[in-house]
Amino acid sequence: PRSMLWDGTTLVQNCGRMIWIFVDYLTDATQKSQKVFVDVLSEIATHEVEEIGVEHLLRDVKDTTVSSLATEIDGKLKALKSLDGRLREIRSSLDLSIDGKLPLNHEILYYLQEVFNLLLNLNVTELTKAFAVKTSDMILVIYLASLIRSVIALHNLINNKMLNKKYKKTEDSKPVPVPAAAGS
């Protein structure tokens, strides 16, 4: 059996791996056998199907330390920041058009008018009431889930305390062995 050394770091130039095998090497001057590592050309290749499968598996890997609620809130926060940046950009463009520094673009104005026409009218009392009811329902669900988790945690705490008392009673009721006196 030959010894083999494998370096798992990826080489940048050819995306292969470095592998060396241990071989006997005869030096010309001394004609002695000397063991040395020799490079072996290697490449790790995959089929396209395997690559797609790995990509599919990695897509579903999630950070378990972050809850889905926190992820959703983070996504909504990023979207709002992006919207704010785009609205500022539109405002600066319109200000430049009003000042005469940019020519008036009717296509952009048409799209802006379309955006304003598609916005919800939040001054309608039925819509405001519907949003309030939906928000209250979601907050109620979160409150109930939190309450249920608290009750379960208290239940587990009580069970643990009772188990500890039971264990302590069994330990106290066991007779303590008395060591025999030497020479009796």
How do you describe this structure in short?
It is built from 4 helices and 3 strands; from the N terminus they run E-E-E-H-H-H-H. With 184 residues, it is mainly alpha-helical. A hairpin with a 6-residue loop joins strand 2 and strand 3 (33-40).
Report the major sheet: 3 strands, antiparallel
SSE string, helix = H, strand = E?
Answer: EEEHHHH
Helix content: 55-70%
Number of helices: 4
Rg, Cα atoms, Å:
37 Å
Which residues sit in consecutive blocks of at least 5 with pLDDT less than 50? Answer: 10-14
Beta percentage is: 5-15%
Please count the beta strands (DSSP E, at least 2 residues each): 3
Mean pLDDT value: 78
In whole angstroms, how far apart are the ends? 66 Å
- What topology, given as strand order, has the largest sheet? 1-2-3
**Based on helices, strands and strand pairing, what is the structural class?**
mainly alpha
Shape: flat
Features:
single chain; 184 residues; mainly alpha; 57% helix
Report on this model:
This protein has 184 residues and is mainly α. It has helices at residues 48-59, 68-98, 106-118, 125-173; strands spanning 4-7, 18-26, 33-40. It has a 3-stranded antiparallel β-sheet, with no helix packed on it. Strand 2 (18-26) and strand 3 (33-40) form a beta hairpin.
